[in-house]
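Task: encode each sequence below as structure tokens.

Item 1
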Amino acid sequence: MPGSERGGEDEATGRLSRIGEVAAAVRTRVVVAHVANGERLAVGDSGHDRYFWLILNTYRVVTLLYAVVLYARVADEYLHPLGAWCVLAVMGLWTVTLLRWRRRDELVMIIDLVIATWAVLMTRVLDDPVRIAEGSQTLPTIWVSTTVLSWAVWRGWLAGLLAALVIAAADVIEVDGRMSGNTTNNIVMMILAGVVVGYNMTIFLAGRRDLARAAAIEAAARERERLAADIHDSVLQVLAYVRRRGHEAGGEAAEIAELAGEQEARLRSLIATGPGTTSTDGEQDLRALLTALSRGRITVTGPAGSVMLPGDVATAVVGAVGAALDNVARHAGPSARAWVFIEDEGGVVTVTVRDDGIGIPAGRLAEAESEGRLGVPMSIRARVENVGGSVEVTSRPGEGTEVELRVPRAGRRRTQ
């Protein structure tokens, strides 16, 4: 029946074309979802920053008013009272500028530090030397502490310490090196404030990054579940049908079956991991990534807690496990089941993929490699060995296949 066979092949080809369009649409939806999630996280981050600067700006206004009131009470004791009012006016203009100017870049922060230091040093020029020797307050008083806190919030405890030391040096110059108890206390308090606030800000930012990363992973997992539910009962079944019937028909249809199998594997991988969900930066929870592969005849078991690995190692393992499960679907038989076992052994993590399929005849892997079919060597072994791991394949005809992947927790690149 050549005509019917050709018609079947044309129908299969048409289905493959439609499947390709669906897969492309699915990929686009996943990318858009991840971009949208990233935008929401970015907006949230900037919102937190605005609150910090709003608090500091409020504190800056309060301390400015305090400096003005304090000076007004002793203005007649200054050598140059008009000059002191001018300094306070500059401080006021800068405060208003920061209230209206939300950006906090290097230039703004340096100008802030320069104005605070200048205001302290101007006390030496404008105030009575006798008052200075007696330990009187500097003209800006605690207004300069806002600069220290701003640097601490902006770049952490080291920046806060740097700003505190610069202003402390100005304090020492202002009293000509004759340190009073009041001056010493002010310097110590500024240094402590810069370090403590900066350190807590560093902890907060680290926690916020972890929260954003967790939110992104959760959003990606929800998107994978939704996509899996949408296409599992349609596209994947059609691909599996085309692959199975193509192998049964043989000839040119077998080539179409191979293409269908490849598209099925890619689509399953897309659903399981999604574009960009396994990053090579930072650490990833291998258990969570592999658990996403569990469905139907695939069971994933592992430790109760997270199994954290470097991003590149986790990505390699997930890719290798996906390839192994693809081999089960393509070669182990239509009723074969698969199990993925995760073992955390401290310095080494072992992942075993086991199936109850028809097994692999002795010498078949070497034969496939010699024929240029590099599924196991390239898709599994190369991935794992490239991050310093090892792969062991054990199989007997009729008893299924076991693929054991062992990777070091630290991960390392294989030397060429």
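Item 2
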Amino acid sequence: MKFPLSRSDFRPDVPVTDALIEACSQACSEQARLLAKGSHVFMPPLNARALTAPDGAEGGPVLIMPRYPTSLDRRIAQGATLAEVLTILITVIKHLQELSQRDGCHGALRPTNILLNDRGEVALTDVLTPAAQKVLARLQAIHPEPQRFFAPELLAVPDASVTQAADTYALGMILYRAVMTPRAGDPDGRLNVKLPAEGLDKAALVTIRDRVQDRVKQEDSNPRFHTRLADKLATLLNRAISKQTSPSPPFRFSTYNDLLPRLEELRALIRPNIGMVGKVLLQRPPSSEVFETDEEVRFSVTVGVTDGVETYEEIACGIALFDSESDERLRDVDCGYTVEPHPSGRFRFSFRVGAMAPGRYRARLAFAIRDSGHQPSTTEVNFEVRAAAGYVPPAREHSPTPLPFARQEDEGDTAPDGLPNEPVPAPIRAAESLQHQHDDGDDSFALPTPPVERPAPIVMPPRPAVEPPRLTFPPQPQHAPPPAAPKVEFQRPSVSLSREVGAHRGTSDETLAHLLDPHAARELRPNIAPPAPPPPPAAPPAPPSIGALRIGPPSVETERTEPAVSKPTQLPAPDPLADILRAGSWTELPLPGKEGGELDAPLLADEPEPTPPGPVQRLITMVREDPYLQWMSILGAVILALFIVLSLLDR
């Protein structure tokens, strides 16, 4: 609701005439008639109108209008950004331009009568009517805090006509107050920013520049244009709030059209952007997109920018070339461009691309203001390059990329079948039956054969229902640890042969083969004891010596050893009698098989795989292998011990 001023609104010591009260009531009625027209959408609609004194006594009309949640005055006090204030002022000037075409100028602009609704739309109220203009100087004289937003010429001459220069002065004062208010705002009004009624001096201009630069650093702005923005804003305020109105320039802006583009330039300088990117034009005849290999590919495009961008150096330009068929980007292409400014403020970029192979291509151009943070504005163009007469394709160098080869995956330390990545033992061939190969006519080396008792039959332990590991055997025997079979020691007859062998040292290898009794060798049948718990790993057995053979009943000794797959063992020295005994390169003879003398393939004991070490065991192993970690562990233990001792002493 809006009421006209009455006598109770003035101080008792201020003389108030009836003409002043009547002029206030008449000004309110003129505003009511202006709002009732509804010809301006930027003015609040008049919902109802009433009279304060229906009986004709002192009073006037009452205007009922919609309530607006905030105003420009509150937004400045709350710390509005400089871009927001400039946007509101630009909207106000556009409303004033529309108002001046029908009902003249506003004449009474101030932050309190520039209203904002929930959608951010700007509304103007309190237009200076003819009746209000007559008493404006009188009201300013008796007001305890006179408004500094009114133009000086309106207060000096009561009957002066309201011009657009008065509104540009008010807009300059509003902008000055917004600049001098800190970014944090002034909600309590304690700063009490004083408006310069006599214009700005050099010291005030320096202060304005510093305030603007400090303010935009805290806002979303482009740092490349901070100095330019501060200089232009100080120049605008120096002219806008000038006390003199002519000549213009260098003094006050005389029309809205003079001030509007400068405010738009200031808003654009906060964060400039690319305005538009035109169509790419190929330097070919119309409707032709074909170049030849003996000429350069040339095309151009026009780029428009927002106000404040003065040179092409502030525009970042990029180009990317693609093969239209494979959509693959081309690298290391010879490109260049030139820029020519246009009188309209736009820039024309002309691009040149070096010699290209025949094919269809697509060029993508991107433009952005440097340090702005905006997404680049892009445009594309398609063209074709055809081979010219006598064109010879250039020789291509070999690609530096290595040829791909199939590589076996790293299987780690353990193969999939549970065996180490090491040579595996060759299969044990069936030993030939040891028989005497002697000359029937020469029995000078025949030895008496004592009776030998038959050993008990072999009792094989039950095998667990676990599939044994599968072995792979190479075609040739290799020196590797023997399979994990029970360790068997054969005790030969107890009669020492060292004397007889020593007596015939000069005999051949074929003759020494008669030293073993064929019946004793054929009847060797060791008894295998049931498997016992695995003892600690023992050293590999030494190769048998011929001097240790004893003639007598054979004895069998079984021991549980580690599986052959646990770890590689040190191979013993080859036995000099290996060829004589015809047992190959092994240090032990194979286990006998069935009664008929046929040998079975050796079986590996089905032992569970060793449990992988836990995290603690791995940590201990790592500390043992690294001297640095050992010292660090010792140091940590000493520090912990000292900490415990100090804790006990404190108690």
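Check on item 2: The chain has a mean pLDDT of 75. Residues 488-499+510-529+546-591 form one domain.
End of task.
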